[in-house]
Design a protein that fits this description.
Largest sheet: 6 strands, mixed
Oligomer: single chain
InterPro entries: Lant_dehyd
Number of strands: 8
Strand content: 5-15%
Distance between the termini: 51 Å
Organism: Dickeya solani
Protein name: DUF4135 domain-containing protein
Shape: globular
Helix content: 40-55%
Strand order of the largest sheet: 1-2-3-4-6-5
Pfam families: DUF4135
Radius of gyration: 24 Å
Length: 304
Amino acid sequence: MRYILSEPYRAYLYFPYIRNFNQKMQQMLTDYGLHHLDFTDVSLSISESLDQIHLPDFVVKFDEWLKTQPDSHSDRYTSYFKNDDNSWLPGLRNHNQYISQLAEHICDTTIANINNFLIRLIEEHKLLIDIYNCPPLSSTPGKLSLAAGDRHDNGQQPVILALGSFKLIYKPRDSGIENVLNEICNIIGLANVCPVTLSLKTHLWQEFVENRGLDLSVDAAKVYRRYGNILALADLLNINDCHFDNFIVDADTVWLIDPVSSKGRCNAILNQGGRCHETKNADLLHAGTESDYLGQVQARRFPA
């Protein structure tokens, strides 16, 4: 099995976790008849997470070791890990119970998340064919990756599925807000701000948005206008967690890809008889006020 590691020397400290993780991943994919899916990127993400939790302890130990070393022109970093014959030095792996438990937790919760993804992928594949024209699962060369971002709810991270040139993203939670936002866009005459989304309450599927550069033949002013329109909509709806990580600019199109903080506000506009109300079960992050009316929203028109 081929391993791609985020740092080839420190990886020695946590390599047993990566080896076990890869074995479990391979077995799981085989059990679902998807052994052909490449999960190298997932393994690399796990390597990066494990490196982060081992790094502080390593820095302290390396500093203590360095203070005891005589003057030398050799590479101290590699000398910490290897003998002169290039063999690994024994006794380097830490026995910190907290770090060990955290490493196991990261691996186990990631496996559980991808297991849920695979179950839903197989069960909902027909829907994905109808909406996204998803290719066959068993015969198309493919790849799995974890989307960048925080590990929410015990490792519940979005998973990117690539089948040939086709790409789809799975998100293990669903606020239902993407389609609501697009409905509001239809009301105010603005092009949809969220990608095509299959909302299933417990999770969602979404067309994957690339991050391609702007073609010089395209009028950049139109792209900035599109960006400004979305920001104006965010301001109108008091979306209060709106930052660059929530946007993707793909060539001449701008998308809002993580609008969860607008949930309570947007649902209020559409579902409270035209009037916004603060409710206890609304999204904790929303900042809507009672004095807003659907008529005010309808009166706002944005250039397409």
